[in-house]
Every structure is written in C-alpha cells, then in structure tokens.
Amino acid sequence: MIIRGDEPEQIALLKKLYPKGNYFMQGDEAIAYGAIFAGCRFYAGYPITPASEIAETMARELPKVRGYYIQMEDEIGSIAAIIGASWTGLKSMTATSGPGFSLMMENLGYAIMTETPIVVVDVQRSGPSTGQATKGAQGDFFQARWGTHGDHPIVAISPISVEDSFWETIRAFNISEKLRIPVVLLTDGVIGHAREQIRIPDPEEVEIVYRKLPKNEEEAKYPFGDVDGSLVPPMPLFGHGYFTHVTGSTHKETGLRDVYTPEVHIKLVNRLHKKVEKHEKEIEKWEEHFTDDMEILVISWGVSARPSFGAVLRAREEGIKVGLFIPKTVHPFPGRRVKELARKVRAILVPEMNLGQLILEVQRYVNDDVILKGVNKIGGVPLTVEEILREIRGVWDG
Amino acid sequence: MAEKTKYKMARYLRKEALPTALCPGCGGGTVLNAFANAIDQLKLDPRDLVVVSGIGCSAWIASPYFLADTLHTTHGRAIAFATGVKVGLPDKKVVVISGDGDLAGIGGNHLIHAARRNIDITVILVNNFIYGMTGGQVAPTTPFGARTTTTPYRNIEHPLNIAEVIAEAGASYVARWTTAHVYQLIESMKKALQVKGFSLVEAISQCPVQFGRRNKMKEPAEMLRWFLKNSIPISKAKNMSREELEGKFVIGEFVNRQRPEFTEELNKLIEELTGQSGPGDENAD
Hints:
- Chain B: Residues 55-202 form the Thiamine pyrophosphate enzyme TPP-binding domain.
- Chain B: Pfam families: TPP_enzyme_C.
- Chain B: InterPro entries: 2-oxoacid:Fd_oxidoreductase, THDP-binding, TPP_enzyme_TPP-bd.
- The complex is a heterodimer.
- Chain A has 15 helices and 16 strands.
- Chain A has helices at residues 8-17, 27-38, 52-61, 75-86, 98-113, 141-146, 162-179, 189-193, 217-220, 262-278, 280-283, 305-317, 335-342, 358-363, 385-397, and strands at 21-26, 40-45, 68-71, 91-96, 118-126, 132-136, 155-157, 182-188, 195-200, 245-247, 286-289, 296-299, 322-327, 329-331, 347-352, 371-376.
- In chain A, a hairpin with a 5-residue loop joins β5 (118-126) and β6.
- Chain B has a single domain (22-275), classed as Rossmann fold.
- Chain B has helices spanning 28-41, 78-88, 100-106, 108-117, 162-169, 182-194, 220-230, 234-237, 242-245, 262-274, and strands at 49-53, 69-72, 93-99, 121-127, 130-131, 137-138, 173-178, 199-204, 231-233, 249-256.
- In chain B, the strands form two sheets. In chain B, strands 2-1-3-4-8-7-10-9 form an eight-stranded mixed sheet, with helices on both faces.
- In chain B, α3 packs across α4 (108-117).
- The longest helix of chain B is centred in the N-terminal third of the chain and has 14 residues, at 28-41.
- Chain B starts with 27 loop residues before the first helix and ends in an 11-residue tail after the last helix.
- β10 (245-247) of chain A pairs parallel with β2 of chain B.
C-alpha cells in the first residue's frame, strides 16, 4: 500500500502514537521521527555506528504507521532498495556513516540522473577509512558535494541540534519530493548520539510535500521532460500502466536511452542543474546572529555551529563586534549571502570538526583583504566555546 | 505501425526501441522470446509487471525492449532495486533479467540474500560465461580452461554453480536450462513467475562473438550443439561425482518448494501491529 503520509488516517495515527509535547531523545531518533512525520514509509539500511539508532527506531516505529523497514545486505543494496521503492511512490530513506556513505556514491548518482526522490542520511564520523568509528566529525562536506562521479547538482542539509534534526529531516524530504532529487542529510556522530529535549509537534503543524504526478497519459510519456516549465517532470510511478522506462544512462525526455547524441546529454544534464538553480530560494536556508553590526564573522555548520554560537555570545559580552552565519543548507552553498556579509567584515573565522572543508567553499566568496582563518579540530572531540572564543579574541586584538 | 509483423510476441515489445542492440547469433533474443511467450501463455498483463535489470548485454534483453515498467539500474544491483519495488508493489510481478557477471559476479551477494529472504522476485539469469559488453573478459562463470581476453592462455579459476548456490540459499524455485531447450525454458519461466517466493531461472546462453570465437565455436549453432552435448538432466546428475560433472551443464529443476515469502511476512507483521485494515484498503487491487 502506498502511503503518502498526509492521509487523515495517518494523521490520526501519528497523533495517537506520538502525542505532541516534549520528548527527550537522541539526534538519530529525531531524524527517524522527522522522517515518519514527513511521510517516509520505506526505510532500507545496514548497521553502522553512529547511525544505527536511526535504523533501530525505524524498525520499531515504521510498522506501527504501516511503513516498511528492511535491513539490506550492505549499503549499496540499501540505497538501491530505496530508489526502487521510491519509483512505486513510497517516500524512502536510508542512513549510514562515512564508510557506508562511500559505498552509496554510485547509486546516489543514479538517483540524481533518474530524478528519484530519496533522502540519504550521513551521520558523519571520524575518517578516513574506519578512523574513529564511534566519534563524530565533519569530514564529508565535499564527499556529499562531489562524492559521486560526473557533473551533478546536489542538495545537502546540515542540522545543528536534536530538535533541528527533526525539522531538517522533514525539510530534506520536502525538497526531495518537490524537485525529484536525492537530498543528503549531513549530520554527525555528536548530534546523532546527543540527547536533548525536543518538542514533537502536532502532525497538522507540519507541512509536507508529495511529488508531482502526471495529470494524464500524455504527461506520463515524458518522465524526464519539462512538461510544465518548472524543470521538474511529473513522476510516472511504476504499477500504473504507464510503461515507464528508467535508466541511469543518458536518456531522452521519454526515458529511452540515447548516449550518442551530444545534445541529448547536454540538455538533460543542464536541466538537472537548472532545476536546482531555479528553486534555489526554496532550498537555501541559514541562520544569522549579530550580522547587522559586526567586524568579525564566524561561519560554522552542524555540530560546530553550537559552540560557535556560545563563543559569539561570550565575545559580545566582552564588547567584541562579532556575528555568526550558519548555513543549514550547505549545498548548494549560500555563496551570494556570504559574499554580502564578507564585504562588511575584516576577518572571518570558520570553526569545523575537520582540517578545513567549509572554509574552502567560503574562500570563493571572500576578497583577499579579509583575514580568513579556520578553527579546526579533529580527533573526535567537538570544538568548545573556549577554543573558538580564543580565536575570536585573537583576531579582534590582532 | 504501418508495417505488419508476423511475430506474435511483437506486441510485448517497445517498438520505438527496436531493433535490439544484441549481436547476430546472441542467445539474448531466444531468452526474450521465451520470456514473452511465458507472459503470453500465462495471460499476464504487462501492466502488472515491473522488469528490473543491471548492466551488460543481458541487462538489455528486456530493458528497454520489453513493454512494461522497466528499471535499468547500476551494475550488479538490480535485485536490490527490485527488492524496493516489490515491497512497494507486492501485487505486481517483479522480474529481474540480467547476466551472470552482473547478478552472480558483482551482484552475487544481493542474489544470495534475496534468495535467503525468499522475496517474491523472479530472476532470469542469462549465463553466457563471459563479460560480453566490455569485450569478452573472464567471468565468475567462465569454464575452467576457457580462453577470454583476460585469460589469454587459459582460465585457471573454476566457475560458480549459480543454480546450486541459490537453491541452497533458500529460493522457492530454481531451474536451469540452455537456449537449446526453449520449451523447457518457457515452462520454467512460467513456474517461476507463478511461484510465491524467490525464483531463479538460469538460462545458459550463447555468446558466439565474445566467448565462442575464442573457444573454437564461432558459429552460434556450434555453441548450441555444445550445450546439447554436455547437458545432463538433474535426475541423472544426482548419481554422478563432481569430477564426472566437470564441464557439464546440469539442467532441470533444482528446487520447487513453498517457504514463507518476505513481503507477505512483512505485511503480516504490520497487520499484527496495527491490528486493523489501514487507509485505502477498500481501494486496494
């Protein structure tokens, strides 16, 4: 049975099972509940630290809302299964961490090329390779962007807290469904395993989106054509007698393969990019604090955004004019806004749990006369307020 | 189509995708023909069919040529994709048609686990002993001693006995035939499509261009004669030793049994937990 998540029976079920109110839970669990509220009714996964709690929560909760959980034989099979399920109309998700995310890269590209809405959660852990398996990190910033081969657009979202994990998962599904694209939720082992209070809303407070379906047989003939000017084709799901053909090879608007005509490839790949660019306003999201009156700007993301906020608050108490910018959608990167903000400051600090990744993206939007400095930490222990504050004071006094 | 075709199965084909890309003499056409006949004889509506394939020549047999919902996936992963499709559409027939390198080489683990899970997917595994599309490299099914572009002297590895492995892994139905046994192939495809649970039909098929040419069988007919000469019915093979069976093709039904099926179990579990029929049930197929 194909459930979209917004059926009155489903709303009633969610209200009964998860009454609105305050809960105490892990970031990973919040992702699972966010997915369920977003209408996700198919999950395929493979155990991996620190993402396993998402699978465990889905295995326990999905059947209660008439959803399907399956543990696959590996991460490649997991992402493959969710793509297959998505073509039947089920909102689908998988979750993993670095090593599994690496294995998923080929099929992430397949989902991009076939315009299949799915959500892939990467609970980042310390790498490379097996690294510090149980420790959080932010080393997959560019893997999320460029991990799969070839020219491609990607949307990646990064929550900063447990409650944020709930809401950003819903946003990931909505963008994925609206644009018929895979969305990566780039969280980390620190937030994933942290326990905090979160407010579970009434399901009616949650706006959820379901993919556009063909209005008639004629529209269904073009599963990869821009039939209505939105650049997002309606999705002719399997099982409806449309004889839909889906391939990861370069294909025409009908779906049939044509790998020899340059124009077919150029048109397809350009449209895939343009559909993301065209809807950029709906995709982009960030937080700003104290950016009206600042000389120093801190730009941080995910787990590092919180000690950054603490450090900025403390610095403000000390009279330091510092602002904070937190991209929640990290890809596509909100470069235009960063460029505007960068013009107002003399220094930019970029705290992150890696040896410098977001900073490379920031660099593209900052003039040479602005001091740009990373605040980097690896080893599995998150940055502290004190560590970031020290750097803020350093550039303020310097 | 203005031009009338005498081929009765043409109505099951995606005409705009024809002619096929298969080489002259390829066994793929025989498999496609057998599959279309199986569908026709069972009077299955192609609207109730989803065909999934991977990468390689044999993945092309039904995709895009068969007129159904067709999902042409990444190398080795067709069965994993099909798993998601089957869970979403438990009332449809989900069929994977792909090759030996794709399903038993790079994708071998998915094949084993789908059989273990006994999910109601029919796999038609076209075994031509070779990686054809990439130029005739050795496969996990290439006979011992055979020549390929990457075993230019002789193959020093032993082939995987796919049907035997999958029967052991827990499939409801497993059969093996060759393209020289078309009627038996059709009958087994029909059984596979009807059985509840995981089913595998291994179709040994000729690749005269990439395999036969390098192994003294450049004519398709020579390969078919090779199949016939070396085929041993499974009833007879049971009394033969491994050594005696070296280089032979054991044909017939390996297993045909009832076991709990995955999507049924999954839905049963959901019913147990929800304790009621859910939204939309009254509109279900």
